[in-house]
Amino acid sequence: MFDSTAVATGYVSRMTLTPAQAAQLNLPGAYNYPPYVSPPTDAVEMGPYGPIGQASPDQVCLQADAQAIANQIAPLYPGQTISVVQENNGLFHYVYGLDPRRQWYIQIGNQAFNAQALIEAQNSHGAGAPGHWALAPLPSSPVTTPQLNWVQDAPVTAAPANAVTIPVPIRPLLPNEQIVRLPGSLFNQAGSWVVERTDLAQPGPGGTQPETEDQQFADLKAMLTAIQGTLNILAAK
User: Fold this and answer.
1) 217-220 long-range contacts, Cβ below 8 Å, gap at least 24?
2) 101, part of any domain
3) How many angstroms separate the most distant Cα atoms in the chain?
4) Does residue 55 lie within any of the structural domains?
5) What is the Cα Rg of the chain in Å?
6) Quick check: 83 pLDDT over 80?
7) For residue 6, how many other CB atoms are within 10 A of its CB?
8) How far is CA 134 from CA 72, 74, 116, 120, in A?
9) DSSP SS3 for 61
10) For position 64, what pLDDT does the model report?
11) Which domain holds residue 201?
């Protein structure tokens, strides 16, 4: 990483991250979570008298995704067996095509949840938006029995107070590169840090290219400082 204080190592320092730090999303600012959309399926819904129509993509998912949801909600049902099952042998059932998705259910005791419905609830505020599963009465329901529902968590857009800030890592410098600090100018008093190619002619005194405006300003500033120093010496005499 770039370190403006590491002069001895060419302004480059080594940074070590723990697996937890490397896995944590920490981009600054508000993140725009894209809408979640279940792609169409070629499954067909069948009834007692033949095909009813195209199956809804909001009813089917992959078994692995259904199992992932089951694993997430399992801690809310301690001591109970949770199973991912298929029920497709009634009068109304699906005939599947090439789409590997199926109508999976998560069964907990005498309760059964459509897995895709839970997946869509989890992504109701955007694909990947933060949140957690909870057992609580639904605000809009007169039933006071705790219900399984997805609770949105407020996205983190700024580092908490006293948080440890980790600099942004960069690639290693190439053998023909070095980090240099450009002096300040009329428009940028603090100056700036840049990566310079050591195998190319650099502008400025001793170089083969014309000086940039910032370098010209720095030369004038150094010249005026020297003149001022000479005037101060003469004034002291």
Assistant:
1) 217/183, 217/185, 217/186, 218/183, 218/184, 218/185
2) yes
3) 114
4) yes
5) 32
6) yes
7) 14
8) 10, 11, 17, 16
9) strand
10) 95
11) 177-236
Does residue 74 sit within a domain?
A: yes
Closest CA relative to residue 118, chosen from 77, 78, 66: 66
Statement to judge: residues 113 and 181 lie in one domain: no
SS3 label, residue 25: coil
> Which of 95, 127, 159 is where one domain is finished?
127
Tokens 């968590």 identify what position?
153
Q: Which of 85, 105, 127 is the last residue of a domain?
A: 127
CB 70 within 8 A of CB 106: yes
Q: What is the C-alpha to C-alpha distance for residues 176 and 181, in angstroms, rounded to an integer? A: 17
The answer to whether residues 186 and 112 belong to one domain is no
The model's pTM: 0.58
pLDDT in tens, 93-125: 899 999 999 999 999 988 899 999 999 999 999
Residue 119 and residue 191 in one domain? no
On whether both 197 and 122 belong to a single domain, the answer is: no
Higher local confidence (pLDDT), 155 or 213 = 155
Cα–Cα dist 146/141, whole Å: 11
Q: In the chain, pLDDT over 70 holds for what percent of residues? A: 83
Quick one: which of 168, 189, 191, 190 has its CA closest to 180? 191
Question: How do residues 166-180 score in pLDDT, each as one tens digit?
Answer: 666 677 788 888 888
Q: Beta partners for 1?
A: none
5 domain-assigned: no
